From TrEMBL:
GO biological process: transmembrane transport
Metal-binding listed as a keyword: no
Protein name stated in the entry: P39
InterPro entries: Bact_solute-bd_prot1 (IPR050490), SBP (IPR006059), SBP_1_CS (IPR006061), TAT_signal (IPR006311)
Keywords: Periplasm, Signal, Transport
The keyword Signal is annotated on this UniProt entry: yes
Organism whose genome encodes this protein: Actinomyces slackii
Lineage: Bacteria, Bacillati, Actinomycetota, Actinomycetes, Actinomycetales
Compartments reported by the entry: Cell envelope
Pfam families noted in UniProt: SBP_bac_1
Family: Belongs to the bacterial solute-binding protein 1 family.
GO cellular component: cell envelope
Length: 424
C-alpha cells in the first residue's frame, strides 16, 4: 500500500472527510520494503470479475518476478477507500466505477494524473473525456484510465421484433409507434422492475443524453453554479417522456425488482428492456439462447441521438504512489489489447482502446455511436449521493407528477450544493 506523505495526507484527509459527510478488511498484502519483490495491492470492486482479475494478476506476476500483485476485493469499495484515505493508507492500484464518487475523489486530489501518460494516449478520446468531466484534481488533469465501458440504451428481443415485422426506431416518435403496435398485438413493449428504486435511472440518463444537445456534463456544470439560474425544470421534456413510456408494459412493475425483471425479460415476456449492457450477462444467465440486440435511445431527431455510456471500470493509483514504476507497469499490462478483449468478452463490455470494437453480437446496435464519438455521460452520475435521486425518481414513476419531481430535485440539489461549496 502507498503511504501518503504528511503534506498529502493533511491536504487530502480533510477533503475526503467532507466528501464522506456529503456522501473491509484488508487482505495480507502490501508494498515490500527491502529485499524481495515489490508487493502491490489491487483494490477491486466487481464481484463478477474476481476470477479474471485473479488470472491477470497471476499471469503478470509470472512474467514480472520482481513484482507480486494481489487482488483485494471490496464490494463497497468507495466507503472502504474513504476510510483508508483518512488513515493515510492509499491502495497501490484501484479499480473504480466512473460515477459521482469517482469524480468527487478525483477532485480532492488523491489520484494520480494520467493526462500525459502513454496509456492515456491509447484510449478513445470521447471515452477518456467521460472521466475528466466527472472531476479532476486540477484543470487539465485526467485521473483515471478507462478500462471498460458500458452502453445504456434499449435492449430488445430480436425474435419478437422480427415476428412483429419491426426494426429498431431512429426517432422518439418511431419508438412510441412501436410501443403502440406491440400493445395492439397483445405484446408488452417493455418489461419493468421498479421495485428497486434505481431502475428508473437508465431511462432518465439515456433520454437526457439525446435531449441535452450541448452536452450532459455541460448542463450539470451550469447547474452546480447556484447563481446560473439553471433549474431542473429544464429537464421537463425528459421527465414527460419518462412518464409516457413507463405506461407501456407490465402492470406489476412496482412488485418486481431488477433480478425479477431480468428473468421475466429473458423468458420473453416483453419486447424491450430499458437498461445498459451490464444487464446482458444477467439476462443470459436465465436464457442463454435469447436473441438480443441493442439500440440507442432515440432523440426527437436522429441526428441528436447519442449512446449514453459510462466508464464501468476505471484504473487509477494514488497521487504519490510508493512504487510508481511497478504500479504503472501493471496498469499498462492491464490495458493491453489481449487483456481488455478477454475482459470485455467475458463481461459484455465495450473496450476503450483506439481501434478496438465490441465483438458480442448483442452490442452491434450501439457500436457505431462509439466509433463516431456520439457518446454522452450518464445524467445520474452527476448527482451527489446526498441528493437521493433514485428515491425521488421512483416516487415520480408512481405519481407522474412532473412539478413535484422538479421541485424536490431543485430544493435538494441546491441544499446539498450549498453545503458542499461551503466545505470545499
Amino acid at each position: 500500500m502507498t503511504s501518503l506523505s504528511r503534506r498529502s495526507f493533511l491536504a487530502t484527509s480533510a477533503r475526503v472527510g467532507a466528501l464522506a459527510a456529503a456522501g473491509g478488511a484488508l487482505s495480507a498484502c502490501g508494498s515490500s520494503r527491502g529485499s524481495g519483490p515489490v508487493r502491490l495491492e489491487l483494490f477491486q470492486f466487481k464481484s463478477e470479475a474476481i476470477g479474471i482479475f485473479d488470472r491477470i494478476c497471476e499471469e503478470f506476476n509470472a512474467a514480472n518476478p520482481d513484482i507480486v500483485v494481489t487482488q483485494n476485493f471490496q464490494a463497497d469499495n468507495v466507503t472502504a477507500l474513504r476510510v483508508r484515505l483518512v488513515k493515510g493508507d492509499m491502495p497501490d492500484l484501484v479499480t473504480i466505477n466512473g460515477d459521482y464518487n469517482y469524480g468527487a475523489l478525483a477532485h480532492s486530489g488523491v489520484f494520480r494524473d494520467f493526462a500525459s501518460s502513454q496509456a492515456m494516449g491509447t484510449v478513445q478520446p470521447s471515452i477518456a473525456e467521460i472521466l475528466a468531466t466527472l472531476g479532476s484534481g486540477a484543470p487539465g488533469e485526467n485521473n483515471g484510465l478507462a478500462f471498460a465501458n458500458n452502453g445504456s440504451g434499449i435492449i430488445y428481443n430480436k425474435d419478437i421484433f422480427d415476428k412483429a415485422g419491426l426494426t429498431p426506431p431512429t426517432t422518439w416518435a418511431e419508438l412510441i409507434e412501436i410501443c403502440d403496435e406491440l400493445t395492439a398485438a397483445g405484446i408488452d413493449p417493455f418489461y419493468w422492475g421498479f421495485k428497486d428504486n434505481w431502475t428508473g435511472a437508465p431511462m432518465f440518463s439515456s433520454i437526457s443524453g439525446g435531449y441535452l444537445t450541448d452536452g450532459v456534463a455541460h448542463w450539470y456544470e451550469q447547474r452546480r453554479d447556484l447563481d446560473s439560474g439553471t433549474s431542473f425544470s429544464d429537464l421537463r421534456p425528459v421527465m414527460e417522456k419518462m412518464s409516457a413510456v413507463a405506461a407501456y408494459g407490465n402492470s406489476n412493475k412496482f412488485e418486481l425488482g431488477y433480478n425479477d425483471a431480468n428473468q421475466g425479460f429473458a423468458q420473453g415476456k416483453a419486447a424491450m428492456y430499458w437498461h445498459g449492457t451490464y444487464a446482458i450477462p444477467a439476462i443470459r444467465s436465465y436464457n442463454e439462447d435469447i436473441n438480443l440486440g441493442t439500440f440507442a435511445t432515440p432523440a426527437d431527431s436522429a441526428k441528436d441521438t447519442k449512446v449514453v455510456s459510462g466508464v464501468d471500470v476505471a484504473l487509477t493509483m494514488g497521487a504519490e504512489p510508493e512504487h510508481p514504476e511497478e504500479s504503472m507497469r501493471f496498469l499498462d499490462y492491464l490495458m493491453n489489447e489481449a487483456n481488455m478483449a478477454d475482459y470485455c468478452s467475458e463481461q459484455v463490455a465495450y473496450p476503450t482502446l483506439k481501434g478496438m470494437s465490441a465483438t458480442d453480437p448483442a452490442l452491434e446496435g450501439l457500436t457505431p455511436y462509439f466509433e463516431e464519438g456520439r457518446v454522452a455521460t450518464y445524467s445520474d452520475h452527476n448527482f451527489p449521493q446526498a441528493v437521493t435521486l433514485n428515491a425521488y425518481m421512483q416516487q415520480f414513476l408512481i405519481n407522474h407528477d412532473v412539478d413535484a419531481f422538479v421541485s424536490v430535485l431543485d430544493e435538494q440539489w441546491n441544499k446539498v450544493m450549498k453545503r458542499l461549496n461551503e466545505t470545499a
